[in-house]
């Protein structure tokens, strides 16, 4: 009798084991068995979407990822389980795109600057003072000459661009002196995202650019490995960069936004109703980021001011802005061959 019970138990365990193994990486086990219809639904395999990003949760992208998770699960009737991994928990800047290509994660939203590692044309968003407002960036992304062209090229490398999420405009900070005029940059080292245009921007100001993953910036500033950095206010505040810098210039000199990217084969292999639910969730989230990015960055500025750790927050004057623009304008010519004159002209037309 006892033997029979144990044998039965082993058989049941083997059966359950083979079911788990058969589920594969894109499914998950049901919640505890409580019987009834709800349980039947829970027992259906879920499609797991791992969403990896590098920023904190209290930023435009951090909040958008959580919103997408909630909406995606709702609009697919629980057929999808979105798992968000913030703060570089899963992948760092340098490897997230190849992780998507290999379907190790299904979604990410790298800064457009980082997409330029695979597709140099994407560095168009890094040009200094290219966009006077986020509305102009959105106009660019919606135009076939810019957004259409950029999203199309992703397909060559098993990637699919789903949406563009805003963060906002970057500001400069430095540890030991204010940044008013181009000469103030001379000889200082600044962290940049991996983008040749961003490197060129600082070289044009006679500064030394240091490409570095986002997760390493705080300690590099703290230890004096670099003197300064550029980022949006929400990124500066949420990662406490303002606590290890003394001077900030509100310059709005460059745009920071995200390409929401997936693996094209994974996306096209999804059941149609699931894909439709995900697209609806994405559309609504994209609209939310558009409506709220500026607010979140504004609130971050208020908190930075309230912390009182910076000696000075300087707003770039029109004359100073003109001098910064003149000093960095050569970057446009230097990258014409890499980015293409048609893209540069299309962006310049928006600016003018
Ligand atoms: C950075 O590296 O500074 C940004 O890409 C971080 C982010 O994703 O906003």
UniProtKB/TrEMBL annotation:
GO terms for cellular component: outer membrane-bounded periplasmic space. The keyword Transport applies. InterPro entries: DctP_fam, TRAP_DctP, TRAP_DctP_sf. Pfam families: DctP (PF03480). One of its GO terms (biological process) is transmembrane transport. This is TRAP transporter substrate-binding protein. Gene3D superfamilies: Bacterial extracellular solute-binding protein, family 7. Residues 1-21 form the signal peptide. It comes from the Bacteria. Keywords: Signal, Transport. Transmembrane segments: none annotated. Belongs to the bacterial solute-binding protein 7 family.
